[in-house]
């Protein structure tokens, strides 16, 4: 590990930096500290779990500007990249290949990889997925209606829907859907030990390796199969990179969408006037989903590293300094979203940063939108009397996790 | 300000510039302004028609995360650039 002299000097002269991630206190609002930081210290020092210092950026304009600044790197292997969750060395090895794919690349490496994939993620392709998503959602709701009350909506709906979508997209055997659900679930739950988590991450790595090997032997007509064929024509990936990319697609689209499903349902149930708007006017659902994405911003903050000195928010970030760009704070910046704390499905704002911004902006965003629209519409149409089976405040929200969500969402009707 | 905000440009003649080499296929343009933008099979932005009233394009320009859509001053008519930008690097 390299020692960053700027940090050492700054820490000594300015005293303690607050810990990051900053926990939420209200289940429906980002960390309360963000309000004061946006007003008074929009770029300020925080300490991540492994002890490193980083700059937390909280204003919309600054976050957006840095995400398009070529001096800001997403390199997952930079020693100063501020990791928001402690990882074991083995887990780090398991995810190393992910860092060599898409999400950890800067230009000029990022563009060619991204371009190999975007044909599978156009708006048109997302629309073509709708019948499949609808079928999955219908099956889940059939099972919910046939089963006992109350039911945990995370297990019954929020996990199976994105799992089914991703298995279809990647061309995985349908039976393997359960493995994805189990391993993601293990990654998410706080009650799971670091060893168990490491074991599931190793299992997933081994599974994806077998999957990619099978596609290499016999490329099928799905995203991974097409990638293997394209890669023969224009070699960009070795086997390990393909595995990393497949892991990224599996993980990036799963937890995030599952979280948005359970939080979105909770958010609409707790705001009956807003729910009435979307159930009364199916055309309002598209923008309601945008507002739910903004309101909950499940990806709270993402790490970057400055590769040159950058002036931002009244401070000079030095080359080599770690950055944490908070989408959750940016999306509640009242300079851009008046009354940001109000869930307003009529807001009509598409310029939120729930999917990020810049070259890494979520590749699966249109699939995610399709899933969320179909889930909310189908659920509230088919179970109009849906309500929470427990008090909202007592529900197991993942308040300290960098990907916000719910472990369990008991509902009845 | 560094980089600048293309939406802030107030010149009397502004032009929509489409750099397909920068497009990362997020689809924000197609989603927000479907009568002006489309995506090709390979996932990159397409302009459906010309000429373009730049007012019409403003929302998409603001939403585009990659810099592939810009408003530039002083030229007339949209410019579609099919050059692959990656060799030069992005920025
Ligand atoms: C509501 C659901 C989702 C949310 C909130 C979300 C959020 C995000 C965010 C914030 C980023 C930016 C990462 C960065 O800047 O470093 C991102 C990137 C990404 N997302 Fe999503 N995502 C969602 C669903 C999906 C789905 C369904 C897929 C795939 C099927 C997906 C695949 C990806 C990939 C591959 C990237 C990396 C793109 C790149 O680096 O070029 N996501 N997502
Ligand atoms: S919004 Fe920009 S990056 Fe996204 S598809 Fe349109 S032009 Fe390409």
Task: Please describe the structure with a list of short key phrases separated by commas or semicolons.
heterodimer, A: 413 residues, alpha+beta, Cytochrome p450, 5-stranded mixed sheet, 9% strand, globular, disordered N terminus, B: 91 residues, Alpha-Beta Plaits, 3-stranded mixed sheet, 2 helices, 5 strands, binds protoporphyrin IX containing FE, binds iron/sulfur cluster
Give a concise summary.
The complex is a heterodimer of chains A (413) and B (91). Chain A is α+β, with helices and mostly antiparallel strands. Chain A has helices spanning 5-14, 33-40, 60-67, 89-99, 110-117, 123-146, 153-158, 160-170, 177-188, 194-217, 223-233, 239-252, 255-270, 272-280, 285-296, 327-330, 365-382; strands at 43-47, 53-57, 72-73, 151-152, 301-306, 310-312, 315-317, 322-326, 387-388, 410-412.
Report on this model:
The complex is a heterodimer of chains A (413) and B (91). Chain A is built from 17 helices and 10 strands. With 413 residues, chain A is an alpha+beta fold. Chain A has one domain (2-412): Cytochrome p450 (Orthogonal Bundle). A 5-stranded mixed beta sheet of chain A has the order 1-2-8-5-3. In chain A, α6 runs parallel beside α17. The termini of chain A are far apart. Residues 1-13 of chain A have low confidence and may be disordered. Chain B has one domain: Alpha-Beta Plaits. Chain B has a 3-stranded mixed beta sheet, with helices on one face. Chain B has a two-stranded antiparallel sheet with strand order 2-3. The longest helix of chain B is centred in the middle third of the chain and has 10 residues, at 54-63. Chain B is globular. Chains A and B meet through α5 and α6 of A and α1 and α2 of B. Chain A: Keywords: Heme, Iron, Metal-binding, Monooxygenase, Oxidoreductase. Chain A: Belongs to the cytochrome P450 family.
């Amino acid at each position: 590990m390299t020692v960053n002299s700027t940090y050492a000097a700054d820490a000594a002269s300015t005293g303690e930096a607050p810990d990051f991630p900053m926990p939420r206190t209200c289940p429906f609002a980002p960390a309360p500290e963000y309000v004061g930081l946006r007003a008074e210290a929009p770029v300020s020092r925080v300490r991540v779990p492994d002890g490193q210092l980083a700059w937390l950026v909280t204003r919309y304009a600054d976050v957006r500007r840095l995400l398009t600044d070529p001096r800001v790197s997403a390199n997952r292997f930079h020693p100063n990249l501020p990791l928001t969750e402690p990882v074991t060395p083995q887990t780090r090895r398991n995810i190393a290949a992910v860092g060599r794919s898409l999400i950890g690349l800067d230009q000029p490496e990022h563009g060619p990889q991204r371009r190999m994939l975007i044909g599978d993620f156009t708006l048109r392709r997302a629309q073509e997925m709708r019948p499949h998503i609808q079928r999955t959602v219908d099956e889940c709701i059939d099972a919910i209606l046939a089963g006992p009350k109350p039911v945990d909506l995370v297990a019954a709906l929020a996990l199976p829907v994105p799992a089914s979508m991703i298995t279809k997209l990647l061309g995985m055997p349908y039976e393997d859907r359960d493995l994805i659900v189990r391993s993601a679930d293990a990654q998410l739950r706080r009650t799971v030990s670091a060893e168990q988590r490491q074991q599931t991450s190793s299992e997933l790595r081994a599974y994806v390796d077998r999957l990619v090997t099978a596609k290499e032997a016999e490329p099928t007509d799905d995203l991974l199969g097409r990638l293997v064929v394209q890669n023969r024509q224009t070699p960009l990936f070795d086997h390990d990179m393909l595995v990393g990319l497949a892991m990224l697609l599996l993980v990036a689209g799963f937890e995030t969408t599952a979280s948005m499903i359970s939080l979105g349902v909770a958010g609409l149930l707790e705001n009956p006037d807003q729910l009435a708007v979307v159930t009364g006017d199916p055309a309002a659902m598209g923008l309601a989903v945008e507002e739910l994405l903004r309101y909950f911003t499940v990806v709270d903050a993402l790490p970057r590293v400055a590769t040159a000195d950058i002036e931002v928010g009244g401070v000079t970030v030095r080359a080599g300094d770690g950055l944490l760009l908070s989408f959750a704070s940016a999306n509640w910046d009242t300079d851009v979203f008046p009354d940001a704390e109000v869930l307003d499905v009529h807001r009509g704002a598409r310029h939120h940063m729930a999917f990020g911004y810049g070259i890494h902006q979520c590749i699966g965003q249109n699939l995610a939108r399709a899933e969320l629209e179909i889930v909310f519409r189908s659920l509230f149409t088919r179970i109009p009397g849906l309500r929470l089976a427990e008090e909202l405040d007592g529900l197991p929200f993942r308040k300290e996790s960098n990907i916000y969500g719910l472990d369990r969402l008991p509902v009845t009707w | 300000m560094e980089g600048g905000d293309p939406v802030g440009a107030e010149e009397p003649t502004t032009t929509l510039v489409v750099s397909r080499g920068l497009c990362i296929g997020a689809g924000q343009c197609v989603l927000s302004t479907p009568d002006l933008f489309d995506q090709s099979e390979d996932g990159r932005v397409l302009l459906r028609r010309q000429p373009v009233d730049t007012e019409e394009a403003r929302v998409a320009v603001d939403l585009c995360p990659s810099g592939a859509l810009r408003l530039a001053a002083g030229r007339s008519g949209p410019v579609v650039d099919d050059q692959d930008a990656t060799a030069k690097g992005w920025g």
